[in-house]
Amino acid sequence: MSKRLLTLFVLVMPLLSTHSFAKTETSTTQPLNVELPEVGKQLRFQGPARLESVLALAIEQNVSLQYSLSTTLFDKSERAEKSSTALKNSVLNQMIQHNLVAHPFYKFIQKQSFAPRVLSAIDVDKVRLNKFDNPLLHGNYVLASPPREEKVFYLGNLNSVYSAKEQAGIPLQRQIANLKSNIGALSTPPVLIYPDGHVVKPHHGAWLTTLYYLPPLTLVYVPFDSLEHSEMDQDIVRLLTQLIPNSTKRPR
């Protein structure tokens, strides 16, 4: 998708306080750039801006912020990009060492974008009403807010990356039973990665009896080996928490 560049010149007058004087001149004049992958646009501010202002302008550009659990601000600074790229390359190299270069999950990781999370589960009303949820931003970010879809994604040690429809909200054990003809029997307990980046690691046996709730857009990662002893699987889980949702790259 070609990106249209939306340049918005926003004049920001910072509120001075005793803490303001501690800020460096660079931080108070540094511009703010926010990518909006859902609409292929970018917001550009001449100086720092509050999160509330960013969200308001994103809404004007038809970004849906209705599913707060999936609304996330990702760090796209040079340092953050180097960190995520290093982790992604490490995961791919470990998969090569395990002879998984032809695996569908290897190809999935290759084409995805990743970045560290700055803020997760952003709620527009909370940001507007609570100053502590409305930070002053400067630098480079991605604001991802995929619309709520009644889907749960199964990926990892499977023969494909599955998008399971009409399964959101159904307990994990029942979902796996419903999908057995597609995903087969699981050899290792899955790991749940919620849209806000929260990770749940069901213990062996417990995931068959505990009613784990799966909200829409949850990732269910099936490890290639025992998670406790597999550095590769642990790194994959870390990487998946940094996955930038993109409707053009998501499994159908």
From TrEMBL:
- The answer to keyword Signal applying to this record is yes
Signal peptide residue numbers: 1-22
Q: Does the keyword Signal apply?
A: yes
Key words, A-Z: Signal
Determine the domain of life of the protein's source.
Bacteria
**Protein name in UniProt:** YjbG
- Give the gene symbol: yjbG
